[in-house]
Amino acid sequence: MQEKTMKQMQQEVDQYISQFKEGYFSPLAMLARLTEELGELAREVNHYYGEKPKKATEKEKTVEEELGDLLFVLICFANSLGIDLQAAHDRVMDKFRTRDRDRWTRKEEGS
User: Could you tell me which residue ranges the NTP pyrophosphohydrolase MazG-like domain spans (predicted)?
Assistant: First the structure.
């Protein structure tokens, strides 16, 4: 499978959503969906890495699946608001490289 850019992922999601009359949900509904998906991710992380094992009756899901669901909804949210996620990513990385450049202890060269 060929790697996709963020722009391509945003276009792919937009093409998918555009085929439905309902289109994108409202920003508030989108935020609720993000929260729901984040909760599902938290539950899976807790099952795999935390102290709460799955019940025998619970459907098998993976952290990867839940991250994918979260990413899809995040892309929908950005698309609905006309936000370029690549540009948003670039801005936040610039912020971390400048404002937070000395915040964390760096690994030594060659380590």
Answer: 25-104
